[in-house]
Amino acid sequence: MNAHEIDYEIFGEEMQYVEIELDPQEAVVAEAGSFMMMDTDIKMNTIFGDGSNQDNSVLGKIFSAGKRMLTGESLFMTAFLNIGQGKKKVSFASPYPGKILPIDLSEKEGKFICQKDAFLCAAKGVSVGIEFSKRLGRGLFGGEGFIMQKLEGDGMAFVHAGGTMAKKVLAPGELLKVDTGCIVGFSHTVDYDIEFIGGIRNSIFGGEGLFFAKLRGPGTVYIQSLPFSRLAGRVLASIPRGGKDKGEGSILGTLGDIVGGDNRF
C-alpha cells in the first residue's frame, strides 16, 4: 500500500485547521463537512468508501463503504485532487475546539486505532476501516461500543482531539486508567479493556460513569480533555427548559420549574 506523500502545516491554537500541500496528481480524502478552503486547480470528487487502493473492484468498494457505515459515518468521502501544474493547497478545519493530531502511519507500523468520530482527513491510499472488539465487556461498556476506527497504510492521517490533548508513552506492562470518552486513539500494540469502578457510592453518586478504560503498554496513547459528548451534555444542560431562564440551573431554578408546573424530566 503506497499512500500519496503530502506536506502539511497546522495553524491556530483552540480552533485549529490543517493546510495540506499537494503536488500535481496528489490527493487527500476527508470526512464530509471538514473542508475549509482550497486553491484553484484542485478538483473535488465524492467517492464511495475511503479511496484506498486495496480493492478497486465494485465488491471491494461496497465492502469499504459498508465498513464506514458500521462506524456511523457516511458511505461517502470527499477526495481533493490537484489537477494543476504546480503545488496547490487545501485546508480542513476542526469541528470544535481542540487539537489536530498528525499521525504518520509509517511510524506506527502501518496501523492506528482511534475513536470513530476522531478522523479528519488523510492522504489518499490510507484505509479507513473498523476495529471490532473481541471482548464482550469492552464492547458493551467501553463507550465506543464494539467498533472503533482503524487507520491503515503508510501515509499521513489527521485526527481531532477535543480540548487539550495529552500524550502518554506506556512501557511494556504499564497500565493507564482513562475515562472511556477521553480516549482519542492509541497504537495497535496497546491492550484496551474496561474495568468496573466499584463501590455503591462511586457508582451511584460519583458522576464519572461506571467504568474506566484500562490501557496497557507498550505503545502510545492520546487522550482528550473535552470529549464532544461531554461538551454537548453541558450545552444541553444549560438550555432553559420551556425557554424560561430560572436561576441558570441552580436549585432555585429547579424549584421554580416545580412550582410553575414544569414537570418535564
UniProtKB/TrEMBL annotation:
Pfam families referenced in this protein's UniProt entry, alphabetically: AIM24
Transmembrane spans: none
InterPro entries: AIM24, AIM24_sf, Trp_RNA-bd_attenuator-like_dom
Name of the molecule in the record: TIGR00266 family protein
Organism: Maribacter cobaltidurans
